[in-house]
Amino acid sequence: MRERADLVTHLAHFARALRGRGVALSLSDEADGLTALTLIDVGDRDEVRRALRAALKIRPRDAAAFEELFAELWSARPGRPAPERPRNPNFFDPTKPPRPGAGIRPPGRPPAEATPETVRDGEEPGYSAEAVLRRKPFEEHTAADLLAMERLLARLALRLATRPSRRRVPTRGRGEADLRRSFRRAIGQGGEFLSLARRARAIEEPRLVVLCDTSGSMDPYTRLLLTFVLALRRVARSAEIFAFNTELVRLTPFLKPGRADLALERLAARVPDWSGGTRIGECLAEFVDRYLDPLVDARTVVLILSDGLDRGDLGPLAAAMRALHYRARRVLWLNPLAGDPRYAPTARAMAAALPYVDRLLPAHNLESLERLLPLLAA
């Protein structure tokens, strides 16, 4: 754990230096960089350089700045002499622990304990605080975490709104050559290729239907998951949101712009038996009877947010899941319990639904929700 914390800190310093040279890096890029470093031999300088250049998505125009800062801030491969240069306090030798007092907050110490001698004002790595929040289990979140989490969820949803789909459409700007359209255009120009037609991947609004379990067993997770759903709906305006426990309630008509905490209070007031019992099968069967035809088609992704704990009749559940599976483009079941590596989908309701679920995914922290985005894009 200490080595991983050191990697987080040094990567944050490296990323800050790159931004100082005008290189555009997002927090998601930093997360990808950290993941790459955990998969390689960090003692091999060339391997680290290649991994970071790929994971941080360094563009050709930024290559020179990357190479210069990498040579300055990361050590040579063990066994080779490092180049002679003035020693930078942020220089990272993966074979040695960081020097005390080198402007790095020791892992495990809260920010309030940092002293002016060890951390100057504004020098704390911004990545680390968000990384902790992204990995923090939802059931451990405090009221103080909610506003910060809401901002992170809004940025996460924005990534979905700008994610290219697989479908390609004509474009007047940059894109790949569309030979078929180019030939047709040339016919109207006397057989001359005066210009190439181009196409690019479309940005499409995802079509979503979300069914969120608000029963008592889901209480530690419901608030954060619904905050995530509200953030998604800001970019997927046609998304339909339902809550279920002992009854099914369509929440879409009650959704209004504004703060997520106030929206959640309004929604809770509209849902009977909030944090009460659950009848998953009956509620999903009601959705299929009333809403399947008008709301779900071959382009729709259905999200079910539930721990799958239900002692009711399994017949309606299996029939409803079968209908959703054959009608929707994809059925994704997000289960907060699946974040535990010991989890197995053996609960009666979860086992009955599983044959008709395209993907069973964890939903216990923000990092798990980030992995969901590629599955929602068209």
Explain the overall architecture.
This protein has 14 helices and nine strands. It has three domains: 134 residues, no CATH class; 38 residues, no CATH class; 170 residues, von Willebrand factor, type A domain (Rossmann fold), CATH 3.40.50. Helix 8 links the parallel strand 4 and strand 5. Helix 1 crosses helix 2, helix 6 runs parallel beside helix 8 and helix 10 packs parallel to helix 11. Strands 6-5-4-7-8-9 form a six-stranded mixed sheet, with helices on both faces. By secondary structure, it is α/β, with parallel strands linked by helices.
Concise synopsis of the structure shown:
This protein has 378 residues and is an alpha/beta fold.
How much strand?
5-15%
Measured between the Cα atoms of the first and last residue, the distance is 38 Å
* Sequence of strands across the biggest β-sheet: 6-5-4-7-8-9
Shape by Cα distribution: globular
The total beta strand count reads: 9
**Mean pLDDT rating:** 75
Kindly provide the radius of gyration, computed on alpha-carbon positions and rounded to a whole number of angstroms: 25 Å
The helix fraction, in percent, is 40-55%
Number of helices: 14
Second CATH tier, the architecture of the largest domain: 3-Layer(aba) Sandwich
Q: Tell me the CATH topology of the largest domain.
A: Rossmann fold
Order of helices and strands: HHHHHHEEHEEHEEHHEHEHEHH
The total tally of domains equals 3
In the CATH scheme, the class of the largest domain would be: Alpha Beta
Task: Report the structural category.
Answer: alpha/beta
Low-confidence regions: 76-127
State the oligomer: single chain
Main sheet makeup? 6 strands, mixed
CATH superfamily of the largest domain: von Willebrand factor, type A domain
